[in-house]
Amino acid sequence: MIDSVGWPFMILQLAWIGLxxxxxxxxxxxxxxxxxxxxxxxxxxxxYASMHFSGLGVLTVAATTVCLAxxxxxxxxxxxxxxxxx
Length: 86
Fold this sequence. Notes:
This protein is mainly α. The protein has one domain (2-74). Helix content is 74%, strand content 0%. The chain contains 3 helices and no strands. The longest helix has 31 residues, at 2-32.
């Protein structure tokens, strides 16, 4: 009986892990790649979606916000918007 109750929570945890990995991949591409804007949006959307699968999604959103802020602050001043165009 306990197995029939526990498996839906395991599926939600696996979905959260998948979205977390997608977020980390997109953050890596946003920090190192040429198409920063596209991957920044992918990271933001997957982090937001992870909130709907697990309470740990809040941590994913917080970490994504910090990482995207660090990428934004690392842009050279006066570079304009051309570095973020995807």
